[in-house]
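Escalation from tier 1.

The customer reports that the assembly of two entities below gives different C-alpha coordinates on two consecutive runs. Tier 1 could not reproduce it. I'm attaching the input and our single run for tier 2 to review.
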Amino acid sequence: MSETQDSLVGKLTTDRSQLDWRPYVYLLPAFVMVAIFLAYPLVDTFLLSFQEVVTLGGETRWVGLDNYVAVVTDPLFWVAAKNTLIFSVGMIVLPLVLGLGLAMAINRGIEGRSFLRSLIFVPVVVPIVVAGIVFSWLLSPNGLVNWLLTTAGVIEEPARFLNSTTLSLPSVMLMVLWKRTGYYMVILLAGLQGLPDDVYEAAKIMGKSRWAMFRHITLPLLKPAILITLVLGIIDTVRAFAHVYVMTGGGPSNSSEILSTHFYQVAFGYFNFGKGAAYGFILFGMALVFSTIAIKLSGGTEI
Amino acid sequence: MSVTDVFATDQDGFPWEQIVRYVAVSLAALFVLVPLYWMVATSLKDPSQIGIFPPTLVPSPATVEPYFEAWETGPWGQWFLNTMLISGGSTIVTLAIATPAAYALARFDFPGSNPIYLLFLGLLMIPAQILLIPLYNLLSTLGLVDTRLGLILVYSTFFLAFSIFLLHSFMTNLPESLEEAARIGGIPEWKIFFQVILPLVKSGLTATGMLIFVFTWNEFLFALTFLKSEQLYTISVGLQSFQGIHGATVYNQLFAMSTLATLPVIILFALFSEQFIEGIAGLEMQ
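Tier 1 run:
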Protein backbone atom coordinates (compact mmCIF):
# COMPACT_ATOMS: atom_id res chain seq x y z
CA MET A 1 0.00 0.00 0.00
CA SER A 2 2.71 2.45 1.02
CA GLU A 3 4.53 1.78 -2.22
CA THR A 4 1.67 2.88 -4.42
CA GLN A 5 0.96 5.76 -2.15
CA ASP A 6 4.57 6.84 -2.25
CA SER A 7 4.83 6.72 -6.00
CA LEU A 8 1.49 8.44 -6.31
CA VAL A 9 2.62 11.27 -4.09
CA GLY A 10 5.89 11.31 -6.00
CA LYS A 11 4.08 11.73 -9.28
CA LEU A 12 1.77 14.34 -7.91
CA THR A 13 4.43 16.51 -6.40
CA THR A 14 7.31 16.31 -8.83
CA ASP A 15 7.98 15.08 -12.32
CA ARG A 16 11.10 13.17 -11.58
CA SER A 17 11.95 10.08 -13.58
CA GLN A 18 11.10 6.53 -12.45
CA LEU A 19 14.31 5.81 -10.52
CA ASP A 20 14.53 7.63 -7.23
CA TRP A 21 18.17 8.57 -6.79
CA ARG A 22 17.86 9.94 -3.26
CA PRO A 23 18.41 6.73 -1.23
CA TYR A 24 21.54 5.98 -3.21
CA VAL A 25 22.95 9.39 -2.42
CA TYR A 26 22.27 8.84 1.28
CA LEU A 27 23.98 5.44 1.09
CA LEU A 28 26.98 6.59 -0.91
CA PRO A 29 29.32 7.55 1.97
CA ALA A 30 28.66 4.22 3.69
CA PHE A 31 29.38 2.36 0.46
CA VAL A 32 32.63 4.20 -0.12
CA MET A 33 33.75 3.53 3.44
CA VAL A 34 32.86 -0.17 3.29
CA ALA A 35 34.46 -0.58 -0.14
CA ILE A 36 37.78 0.91 0.94
CA PHE A 37 38.17 -0.38 4.47
CA LEU A 38 36.21 -3.63 4.38
CA ALA A 39 35.53 -5.08 0.92
CA TYR A 40 38.96 -4.32 -0.48
CA PRO A 41 40.83 -5.76 2.53
CA LEU A 42 38.54 -8.77 2.50
CA VAL A 43 39.31 -9.55 -1.16
CA ASP A 44 42.97 -8.73 -0.56
CA THR A 45 43.23 -11.11 2.36
CA PHE A 46 41.41 -13.80 0.39
CA LEU A 47 43.97 -13.53 -2.42
CA LEU A 48 46.81 -13.34 0.06
CA SER A 49 45.67 -16.60 1.61
CA PHE A 50 46.79 -18.37 -1.60
CA GLN A 51 50.16 -16.63 -1.72
CA GLU A 52 53.44 -16.65 0.05
CA VAL A 53 55.42 -13.52 0.80
CA VAL A 54 58.88 -14.30 -0.54
CA THR A 55 60.82 -11.05 -0.14
CA LEU A 56 60.99 -8.35 2.46
CA GLY A 57 59.69 -5.96 -0.17
CA GLY A 58 56.42 -7.88 -0.14
CA GLU A 59 56.77 -9.80 -3.38
CA THR A 60 54.59 -12.84 -3.42
CA ARG A 61 54.11 -16.07 -5.31
CA TRP A 62 51.07 -18.29 -5.65
CA VAL A 63 51.12 -21.42 -3.54
CA GLY A 64 47.58 -22.75 -3.97
CA LEU A 65 46.13 -24.22 -0.80
CA ASP A 66 49.51 -24.53 0.94
CA ASN A 67 48.67 -21.88 3.53
CA TYR A 68 45.42 -23.58 4.45
CA VAL A 69 47.23 -26.91 4.73
CA ALA A 70 49.89 -25.25 6.86
CA VAL A 71 47.23 -23.98 9.26
CA VAL A 72 45.34 -27.24 9.73
CA THR A 73 48.50 -29.33 10.01
CA ASP A 74 49.85 -27.02 12.69
CA PRO A 75 49.42 -29.00 15.94
CA LEU A 76 48.95 -25.74 17.83
CA PHE A 77 45.90 -24.97 15.69
CA TRP A 78 44.16 -28.03 17.12
CA VAL A 79 45.23 -27.20 20.66
CA ALA A 80 43.82 -23.71 20.15
CA ALA A 81 40.64 -25.12 18.59
CA LYS A 82 40.07 -27.41 21.56
CA ASN A 83 40.74 -24.53 23.98
CA THR A 84 38.36 -22.28 22.03
CA LEU A 85 35.65 -24.89 22.41
CA ILE A 86 36.20 -24.94 26.18
CA PHE A 87 36.45 -21.15 26.19
CA SER A 88 33.07 -20.92 24.45
CA VAL A 89 31.47 -22.45 27.54
CA GLY A 90 32.63 -19.33 29.40
CA MET A 91 31.70 -16.99 26.55
CA ILE A 92 28.30 -18.50 25.77
CA VAL A 93 26.87 -21.26 27.97
CA LEU A 94 27.61 -20.07 31.52
CA PRO A 95 26.73 -16.38 31.04
CA LEU A 96 23.62 -17.43 29.10
CA VAL A 97 22.35 -19.70 31.88
CA LEU A 98 23.27 -17.17 34.57
CA GLY A 99 21.89 -14.28 32.53
CA LEU A 100 18.61 -16.11 31.99
CA GLY A 101 18.28 -16.90 35.69
CA LEU A 102 18.99 -13.28 36.61
CA ALA A 103 16.66 -11.93 33.94
CA MET A 104 13.85 -14.07 35.37
CA ALA A 105 14.78 -13.06 38.91
CA ILE A 106 14.56 -9.33 38.27
CA ASN A 107 11.82 -9.36 35.64
CA ARG A 108 8.97 -9.31 38.15
CA GLY A 109 8.31 -8.85 41.82
CA ILE A 110 11.53 -7.12 42.83
CA GLU A 111 12.28 -3.62 44.02
CA GLY A 112 14.60 -1.38 41.99
CA ARG A 113 14.42 -3.40 38.80
CA SER A 114 16.05 -0.86 36.51
CA PHE A 115 18.80 -0.07 39.02
CA LEU A 116 19.66 -3.78 39.37
CA ARG A 117 19.65 -4.17 35.61
CA SER A 118 22.12 -1.30 35.24
CA LEU A 119 24.31 -2.55 38.07
CA ILE A 120 24.67 -6.05 36.64
CA PHE A 121 25.37 -4.51 33.22
CA VAL A 122 28.30 -2.38 34.47
CA PRO A 123 31.07 -4.93 33.68
CA VAL A 124 30.06 -4.78 30.01
CA VAL A 125 31.31 -1.19 29.74
CA VAL A 126 34.53 -1.77 31.70
CA PRO A 127 37.53 -1.82 29.31
CA ILE A 128 38.56 -5.41 28.60
CA VAL A 129 42.19 -4.63 29.40
CA VAL A 130 41.19 -3.28 32.81
CA ALA A 131 39.03 -6.36 33.47
CA GLY A 132 41.95 -8.62 32.55
CA ILE A 133 44.38 -6.76 34.78
CA VAL A 134 41.98 -6.71 37.73
CA PHE A 135 41.24 -10.45 37.50
CA SER A 136 44.95 -11.23 37.14
CA TRP A 137 45.48 -9.49 40.45
CA LEU A 138 42.44 -11.08 42.11
CA LEU A 139 43.73 -14.53 41.09
CA SER A 140 47.41 -13.91 41.86
CA PRO A 141 49.07 -16.13 44.52
CA ASN A 142 48.67 -13.40 47.15
CA GLY A 143 45.39 -12.10 45.76
CA LEU A 144 41.90 -11.92 47.15
CA VAL A 145 40.63 -15.24 45.73
CA ASN A 146 43.49 -17.22 47.22
CA TRP A 147 43.01 -15.48 50.53
CA LEU A 148 39.29 -16.37 50.54
CA LEU A 149 39.92 -19.99 49.53
CA THR A 150 42.70 -20.59 52.04
CA THR A 151 40.80 -18.85 54.84
CA ALA A 152 37.70 -20.91 54.11
CA GLY A 153 39.89 -24.01 54.12
CA VAL A 154 39.05 -25.01 50.55
CA ILE A 155 42.74 -25.18 49.63
CA GLU A 156 45.78 -25.27 51.89
CA GLU A 157 48.33 -23.47 49.75
CA PRO A 158 47.58 -20.48 47.52
CA ALA A 159 47.01 -21.69 43.94
CA ARG A 160 48.93 -20.23 41.01
CA PHE A 161 45.86 -19.87 38.85
CA LEU A 162 47.41 -18.13 35.86
CA ASN A 163 50.57 -20.21 35.86
CA SER A 164 48.80 -23.53 35.93
CA THR A 165 48.12 -25.47 32.74
CA THR A 166 44.81 -26.70 34.14
CA LEU A 167 43.59 -23.46 35.75
CA SER A 168 44.70 -20.73 33.34
CA LEU A 169 41.84 -21.11 30.87
CA PRO A 170 39.14 -21.40 33.58
CA SER A 171 40.64 -18.25 35.14
CA VAL A 172 40.11 -16.32 31.92
CA MET A 173 36.61 -17.79 31.69
CA LEU A 174 35.79 -16.43 35.15
CA MET A 175 36.64 -12.92 33.95
CA VAL A 176 34.60 -13.48 30.80
CA LEU A 177 31.64 -14.64 32.88
CA TRP A 178 31.91 -11.41 34.86
CA LYS A 179 32.04 -9.36 31.66
CA ARG A 180 29.24 -11.04 29.68
CA THR A 181 26.48 -12.10 32.08
CA GLY A 182 24.96 -8.62 32.18
CA TYR A 183 25.05 -8.39 28.40
CA TYR A 184 22.99 -11.56 27.93
CA MET A 185 20.74 -10.69 30.83
CA VAL A 186 19.74 -7.40 29.21
CA ILE A 187 18.91 -9.06 25.89
CA LEU A 188 16.93 -11.85 27.57
CA LEU A 189 15.17 -9.38 29.85
CA ALA A 190 13.98 -7.47 26.80
CA GLY A 191 12.71 -10.78 25.45
CA LEU A 192 10.92 -11.61 28.72
CA GLN A 193 9.15 -8.27 28.72
CA GLY A 194 7.69 -9.11 25.37
CA LEU A 195 5.98 -12.21 26.79
CA PRO A 196 2.25 -11.82 27.38
CA ASP A 197 1.12 -12.02 31.02
CA ASP A 198 -2.22 -13.65 30.25
CA VAL A 199 -0.55 -16.81 28.96
CA TYR A 200 0.96 -17.33 32.40
CA GLU A 201 -2.33 -16.54 34.10
CA ALA A 202 -4.06 -19.16 31.96
CA ALA A 203 -1.36 -21.74 32.70
CA LYS A 204 -1.65 -21.00 36.41
CA ILE A 205 -5.39 -21.53 36.31
CA MET A 206 -4.83 -24.82 34.53
CA GLY A 207 -2.60 -25.82 37.43
CA LYS A 208 0.60 -26.10 35.45
CA SER A 209 3.78 -26.38 37.51
CA ARG A 210 6.40 -23.67 37.37
CA TRP A 211 8.78 -25.97 35.59
CA ALA A 212 6.13 -26.78 32.98
CA MET A 213 5.46 -23.06 32.47
CA PHE A 214 9.17 -22.39 32.10
CA ARG A 215 9.67 -25.33 29.77
CA HIS A 216 6.58 -24.87 27.60
CA ILE A 217 5.91 -21.14 27.68
CA THR A 218 8.97 -19.11 28.67
CA LEU A 219 11.62 -21.04 26.75
CA PRO A 220 9.73 -21.30 23.43
CA LEU A 221 8.73 -17.64 23.54
CA LEU A 222 12.27 -16.62 24.44
CA LYS A 223 13.71 -18.61 21.55
CA PRO A 224 14.44 -15.60 19.32
CA ALA A 225 16.26 -13.81 22.14
CA ILE A 226 18.26 -16.92 23.07
CA LEU A 227 19.14 -17.46 19.43
CA ILE A 228 20.50 -13.93 19.20
CA THR A 229 22.67 -14.41 22.28
CA LEU A 230 23.96 -17.67 20.78
CA VAL A 231 24.92 -16.10 17.46
CA LEU A 232 26.47 -13.09 19.19
CA GLY A 233 28.31 -15.44 21.50
CA ILE A 234 29.74 -17.47 18.63
CA ILE A 235 30.94 -14.38 16.75
CA ASP A 236 32.43 -12.90 19.92
CA THR A 237 34.15 -16.19 20.79
CA VAL A 238 35.90 -16.15 17.43
CA ARG A 239 36.76 -12.46 17.97
CA ALA A 240 37.88 -12.69 21.60
CA PHE A 241 41.49 -11.65 21.89
CA ALA A 242 42.36 -9.26 24.71
CA HIS A 243 40.57 -11.58 27.16
CA VAL A 244 43.36 -14.14 26.89
CA TYR A 245 46.17 -11.86 25.71
CA VAL A 246 46.12 -9.66 28.81
CA MET A 247 45.68 -12.35 31.47
CA THR A 248 47.80 -15.26 30.29
CA GLY A 249 49.18 -14.45 26.84
CA GLY A 250 47.98 -17.93 25.87
CA GLY A 251 50.21 -19.69 28.37
CA PRO A 252 51.52 -21.49 30.24
CA SER A 253 52.69 -23.85 27.48
CA ASN A 254 49.73 -22.88 25.25
CA SER A 255 47.20 -24.13 27.79
CA SER A 256 45.03 -21.05 27.30
CA GLU A 257 45.89 -20.37 23.66
CA ILE A 258 42.68 -19.81 21.70
CA LEU A 259 42.25 -19.51 17.95
CA SER A 260 42.34 -15.73 17.77
CA THR A 261 45.46 -15.36 19.93
CA HIS A 262 47.17 -18.13 17.96
CA PHE A 263 46.10 -16.41 14.74
CA TYR A 264 47.68 -13.19 15.98
CA GLN A 265 50.86 -15.03 16.85
CA VAL A 266 51.05 -16.55 13.37
CA ALA A 267 50.31 -13.31 11.53
CA PHE A 268 52.10 -10.72 13.63
CA GLY A 269 54.43 -12.73 15.84
CA TYR A 270 56.03 -14.65 12.99
CA PHE A 271 54.95 -12.19 10.26
CA ASN A 272 53.65 -15.10 8.22
CA PHE A 273 51.08 -13.03 6.36
CA GLY A 274 50.02 -15.72 3.88
CA LYS A 275 49.35 -18.32 6.55
CA GLY A 276 47.76 -15.63 8.70
CA ALA A 277 45.35 -14.74 5.90
CA ALA A 278 44.38 -18.40 5.41
CA TYR A 279 43.93 -18.67 9.17
CA GLY A 280 41.65 -15.63 9.10
CA PHE A 281 39.40 -17.21 6.50
CA ILE A 282 39.23 -20.42 8.46
CA LEU A 283 38.07 -18.34 11.45
CA PHE A 284 35.51 -16.55 9.29
CA GLY A 285 34.25 -19.90 7.99
CA MET A 286 33.92 -21.21 11.54
CA ALA A 287 31.91 -18.18 12.65
CA LEU A 288 29.56 -18.66 9.68
CA VAL A 289 29.20 -22.43 10.05
CA PHE A 290 28.57 -22.41 13.79
CA SER A 291 26.13 -19.50 13.58
CA THR A 292 24.23 -21.31 10.83
CA ILE A 293 24.15 -24.50 12.90
CA ALA A 294 22.84 -22.54 15.88
CA ILE A 295 20.08 -21.02 13.75
CA LYS A 296 19.19 -24.38 12.15
CA LEU A 297 19.20 -26.28 15.45
CA SER A 298 16.78 -23.85 17.01
CA GLY A 299 14.52 -24.29 14.01
CA GLY A 300 15.00 -20.84 12.56
CA THR A 301 13.39 -17.70 13.81
CA GLU A 302 10.55 -15.49 12.77
CA ILE A 303 11.95 -12.25 14.05
CA MET B 1 16.73 -24.78 35.18
CA SER B 2 16.22 -21.73 37.29
CA VAL B 3 16.48 -22.20 41.03
CA THR B 4 13.47 -19.97 41.44
CA ASP B 5 11.20 -22.42 39.71
CA VAL B 6 12.36 -25.46 41.61
CA PHE B 7 11.95 -24.09 45.09
CA ALA B 8 9.10 -21.70 44.73
CA THR B 9 5.84 -22.82 46.23
CA ASP B 10 3.08 -20.31 46.73
CA GLN B 11 0.86 -22.67 48.68
CA ASP B 12 2.64 -22.85 52.02
CA GLY B 13 2.73 -19.08 52.28
CA PHE B 14 6.44 -18.87 53.00
CA PRO B 15 8.01 -16.48 50.47
CA TRP B 16 10.57 -18.92 49.09
CA GLU B 17 10.40 -17.37 45.70
CA GLN B 18 11.15 -13.88 46.97
CA ILE B 19 14.04 -15.17 49.09
CA VAL B 20 15.65 -17.07 46.23
CA ARG B 21 15.16 -14.03 43.99
CA TYR B 22 16.90 -11.67 46.40
CA VAL B 23 19.70 -14.10 47.26
CA ALA B 24 20.44 -14.70 43.56
CA VAL B 25 20.44 -11.00 42.73
CA SER B 26 22.55 -10.15 45.79
CA LEU B 27 25.16 -12.75 44.85
CA ALA B 28 25.24 -11.39 41.30
CA ALA B 29 25.64 -7.84 42.58
CA LEU B 30 28.46 -8.98 44.84
CA PHE B 31 30.18 -10.75 41.95
CA VAL B 32 29.91 -7.57 39.87
CA LEU B 33 31.10 -5.21 42.59
CA VAL B 34 33.98 -7.08 44.26
CA PRO B 35 36.44 -6.78 41.33
CA LEU B 36 35.57 -3.09 40.92
CA TYR B 37 35.91 -2.46 44.65
CA TRP B 38 39.23 -4.31 44.66
CA MET B 39 40.51 -2.17 41.79
CA VAL B 40 39.65 1.10 43.53
CA ALA B 41 40.78 -0.13 46.97
CA THR B 42 44.15 -1.29 45.63
CA SER B 43 44.66 2.04 43.88
CA LEU B 44 44.42 3.77 47.27
CA LYS B 45 46.99 1.62 49.08
CA ASP B 46 50.56 2.62 49.83
CA PRO B 47 53.35 0.23 48.74
CA SER B 48 53.52 -1.44 52.16
CA GLN B 49 50.04 -2.90 51.58
CA ILE B 50 50.79 -4.29 48.12
CA GLY B 51 51.74 -7.91 47.59
CA ILE B 52 51.30 -8.89 51.23
CA PHE B 53 49.31 -11.90 52.33
CA PRO B 54 46.72 -11.83 53.77
CA PRO B 55 45.72 -8.75 51.78
CA THR B 56 44.34 -5.67 53.51
CA LEU B 57 40.66 -5.51 52.65
CA VAL B 58 40.28 -1.80 53.31
CA PRO B 59 43.22 0.45 52.49
CA SER B 60 44.68 1.88 55.67
CA PRO B 61 46.08 4.35 55.39
CA ALA B 62 44.23 5.29 52.21
CA THR B 63 46.30 7.50 49.95
CA VAL B 64 45.94 9.08 46.52
CA GLU B 65 49.73 9.08 46.16
CA PRO B 66 49.70 6.12 43.66
CA TYR B 67 47.72 8.28 41.21
CA PHE B 68 50.43 10.94 41.18
CA GLU B 69 53.29 8.44 41.13
CA ALA B 70 51.78 6.48 38.23
CA TRP B 71 51.11 9.69 36.29
CA GLU B 72 54.86 10.38 36.27
CA THR B 73 55.78 6.99 34.78
CA GLY B 74 54.57 7.62 31.24
CA PRO B 75 52.70 10.01 28.95
CA TRP B 76 49.35 9.17 30.55
CA GLY B 77 47.89 12.58 29.80
CA GLN B 78 48.75 12.11 26.15
CA TRP B 79 47.26 8.59 26.18
CA PHE B 80 43.99 9.84 27.63
CA LEU B 81 43.91 12.62 25.07
CA ASN B 82 44.58 10.12 22.25
CA THR B 83 41.79 7.84 23.43
CA MET B 84 39.44 10.81 23.73
CA LEU B 85 40.29 12.03 20.22
CA ILE B 86 40.05 8.57 18.66
CA SER B 87 36.78 7.65 20.38
CA GLY B 88 35.27 11.07 19.78
CA GLY B 89 36.43 11.13 16.17
CA SER B 90 35.14 7.62 15.49
CA THR B 91 31.78 8.49 17.03
CA ILE B 92 31.37 11.60 14.85
CA VAL B 93 32.55 9.96 11.62
CA THR B 94 30.42 6.85 12.19
CA LEU B 95 27.27 8.83 12.96
CA ALA B 96 27.85 11.14 9.99
CA ILE B 97 27.99 8.18 7.62
CA ALA B 98 25.57 5.77 9.28
CA THR B 99 22.69 8.22 9.81
CA PRO B 100 21.98 9.00 6.14
CA ALA B 101 22.48 5.32 5.25
CA ALA B 102 20.00 4.24 7.92
CA TYR B 103 17.61 6.94 6.68
CA ALA B 104 17.77 5.56 3.14
CA LEU B 105 17.16 1.98 4.29
CA ALA B 106 14.41 2.85 6.75
CA ARG B 107 12.43 5.45 4.83
CA PHE B 108 12.72 4.60 1.13
CA ASP B 109 11.45 1.75 -1.02
CA PHE B 110 13.99 1.31 -3.75
CA PRO B 111 15.44 -1.44 -5.93
CA GLY B 112 18.12 -3.23 -3.97
CA SER B 113 17.12 -2.01 -0.53
CA ASN B 114 16.72 -5.54 0.80
CA PRO B 115 20.01 -6.96 -0.53
CA ILE B 116 21.80 -3.87 0.78
CA TYR B 117 20.26 -4.37 4.20
CA LEU B 118 21.34 -8.02 4.19
CA LEU B 119 24.82 -7.03 3.01
CA PHE B 120 25.26 -4.79 6.04
CA LEU B 121 23.93 -7.60 8.23
CA GLY B 122 26.57 -9.90 6.75
CA LEU B 123 29.28 -7.38 7.57
CA LEU B 124 28.46 -7.83 11.24
CA MET B 125 29.47 -11.48 10.97
CA ILE B 126 33.06 -10.85 9.86
CA PRO B 127 35.52 -11.42 12.69
CA ALA B 128 37.28 -8.08 12.30
CA GLN B 129 40.73 -9.35 13.22
CA ILE B 130 41.00 -11.34 9.98
CA LEU B 131 41.33 -7.97 8.22
CA LEU B 132 44.28 -6.92 10.35
CA ILE B 133 46.89 -7.82 7.74
CA PRO B 134 45.33 -6.25 4.62
CA LEU B 135 44.22 -3.22 6.62
CA TYR B 136 47.72 -2.81 7.91
CA ASN B 137 49.01 -2.92 4.33
CA LEU B 138 46.31 -0.53 3.17
CA LEU B 139 47.02 1.96 5.93
CA SER B 140 50.74 1.77 5.13
CA THR B 141 50.01 2.60 1.51
CA LEU B 142 47.86 5.54 2.58
CA GLY B 143 50.49 6.62 5.11
CA LEU B 144 48.00 6.12 7.91
CA VAL B 145 49.68 3.41 9.97
CA ASP B 146 50.57 4.77 13.37
CA THR B 147 48.17 7.69 13.10
CA ARG B 148 45.02 8.51 15.03
CA LEU B 149 43.17 9.19 11.77
CA GLY B 150 43.93 5.69 10.47
CA LEU B 151 42.44 4.10 13.56
CA ILE B 152 39.42 6.42 13.44
CA LEU B 153 38.66 5.37 9.84
CA VAL B 154 39.02 1.67 10.68
CA TYR B 155 36.81 1.94 13.78
CA SER B 156 34.22 3.94 11.88
CA THR B 157 33.99 1.23 9.24
CA PHE B 158 33.70 -1.57 11.77
CA PHE B 159 30.97 0.13 13.77
CA LEU B 160 29.11 1.29 10.67
CA ALA B 161 26.88 -1.76 10.18
CA PHE B 162 26.06 -1.87 13.88
CA SER B 163 25.16 1.83 13.92
CA ILE B 164 23.05 1.59 10.77
CA PHE B 165 20.96 -1.16 12.36
CA LEU B 166 20.48 0.69 15.59
CA LEU B 167 19.51 3.96 13.86
CA HIS B 168 17.34 2.04 11.41
CA SER B 169 15.25 0.74 14.31
CA PHE B 170 14.66 4.28 15.57
CA MET B 171 13.74 5.59 12.12
CA THR B 172 11.28 2.90 11.03
CA ASN B 173 9.12 3.78 14.01
CA LEU B 174 8.46 7.33 12.80
CA PRO B 175 5.04 7.95 11.25
CA GLU B 176 4.89 7.18 7.54
CA SER B 177 3.34 10.41 6.40
CA LEU B 178 6.12 12.55 7.84
CA GLU B 179 8.23 13.17 4.76
CA GLU B 180 5.23 13.22 2.43
CA ALA B 181 3.73 16.07 4.37
CA ALA B 182 7.05 17.89 4.30
CA ARG B 183 7.48 17.30 0.57
CA ILE B 184 4.00 18.49 -0.24
CA GLY B 185 4.82 21.52 1.87
CA GLY B 186 7.71 22.13 -0.52
CA ILE B 187 10.53 21.64 1.99
CA PRO B 188 13.74 20.77 0.13
CA GLU B 189 15.13 17.26 0.48
CA TRP B 190 18.20 18.09 2.57
CA LYS B 191 16.09 20.12 4.96
CA ILE B 192 13.74 17.16 5.47
CA PHE B 193 16.68 15.04 6.57
CA PHE B 194 18.34 17.62 8.76
CA GLN B 195 15.37 19.50 10.16
CA VAL B 196 12.55 16.96 10.21
CA ILE B 197 14.12 13.53 10.69
CA LEU B 198 17.23 14.22 12.77
CA PRO B 199 15.48 16.06 15.61
CA LEU B 200 13.01 13.17 15.90
CA VAL B 201 15.70 10.52 16.33
CA LYS B 202 17.80 12.50 18.78
CA SER B 203 17.53 9.75 21.41
CA GLY B 204 18.62 7.18 18.83
CA LEU B 205 21.63 9.29 17.90
CA THR B 206 22.52 9.64 21.58
CA ALA B 207 22.25 5.91 22.25
CA THR B 208 24.25 4.99 19.15
CA GLY B 209 26.90 7.64 19.82
CA MET B 210 27.35 6.52 23.42
CA LEU B 211 27.74 2.89 22.41
CA ILE B 212 30.31 3.68 19.71
CA PHE B 213 32.23 5.90 22.12
CA VAL B 214 32.39 3.20 24.79
CA PHE B 215 33.25 0.38 22.36
CA THR B 216 36.08 2.35 20.77
CA TRP B 217 37.30 3.58 24.16
CA ASN B 218 37.67 -0.07 25.20
CA GLU B 219 39.02 -1.50 21.94
CA PHE B 220 42.40 -3.13 22.24
CA LEU B 221 43.50 -5.34 19.33
CA PHE B 222 43.47 -2.76 16.54
CA ALA B 223 44.94 -0.04 18.73
CA LEU B 224 47.70 -2.46 19.72
CA THR B 225 48.47 -3.37 16.12
CA PHE B 226 48.15 -0.04 14.34
CA LEU B 227 49.64 2.36 16.88
CA LYS B 228 53.37 1.82 17.01
CA SER B 229 54.82 4.88 18.69
CA GLU B 230 54.33 5.30 22.40
CA GLN B 231 53.13 8.88 21.95
CA LEU B 232 50.05 7.63 20.10
CA TYR B 233 48.95 4.80 22.41
CA THR B 234 45.39 4.62 23.62
CA ILE B 235 44.76 4.15 27.31
CA SER B 236 44.20 0.38 26.95
CA VAL B 237 47.48 -0.10 25.09
CA GLY B 238 49.22 2.16 27.62
CA LEU B 239 47.87 0.14 30.53
CA GLN B 240 48.93 -3.12 28.95
CA SER B 241 52.43 -1.82 28.27
CA PHE B 242 52.69 -0.43 31.82
CA GLN B 243 51.69 -3.85 33.17
CA GLY B 244 54.29 -5.49 30.93
CA ILE B 245 57.08 -3.18 32.08
CA HIS B 246 56.31 -2.87 35.79
CA GLY B 247 54.64 -6.23 36.33
CA ALA B 248 53.22 -7.03 39.71
CA THR B 249 55.40 -4.67 41.69
CA VAL B 250 53.32 -1.52 41.53
CA TYR B 251 49.76 -2.79 41.45
CA ASN B 252 48.55 0.28 43.31
CA GLN B 253 49.78 2.49 40.45
CA LEU B 254 48.48 0.12 37.77
CA PHE B 255 45.04 0.20 39.39
CA ALA B 256 45.14 3.94 39.86
CA MET B 257 45.45 4.29 36.07
CA SER B 258 42.94 1.47 35.48
CA THR B 259 40.45 3.34 37.64
CA LEU B 260 41.02 6.53 35.66
CA ALA B 261 40.63 4.60 32.38
CA THR B 262 37.31 3.14 33.55
CA LEU B 263 35.88 6.31 35.06
CA PRO B 264 34.84 8.04 31.80
CA VAL B 265 32.86 5.05 30.51
CA ILE B 266 31.27 4.42 33.90
CA ILE B 267 30.20 8.07 34.10
CA LEU B 268 28.79 7.95 30.57
CA PHE B 269 26.94 4.77 31.43
CA ALA B 270 25.60 6.20 34.67
CA LEU B 271 24.26 9.24 32.82
CA PHE B 272 22.73 7.34 29.90
CA SER B 273 22.16 3.82 31.25
CA GLU B 274 18.56 3.64 30.00
CA GLN B 275 19.40 4.62 26.40
CA PHE B 276 22.42 2.39 26.56
CA ILE B 277 20.63 -0.76 27.65
CA GLU B 278 17.61 -0.14 25.47
CA GLY B 279 19.98 0.44 22.57
CA ILE B 280 21.68 -2.91 23.08
CA ALA B 281 18.49 -4.83 23.75
CA GLY B 282 16.55 -3.08 20.99
CA LEU B 283 19.24 -3.70 18.42
CA GLU B 284 19.41 -7.38 19.15
CA MET B 285 15.64 -7.71 19.05
CA GLN B 286 15.35 -6.44 15.49
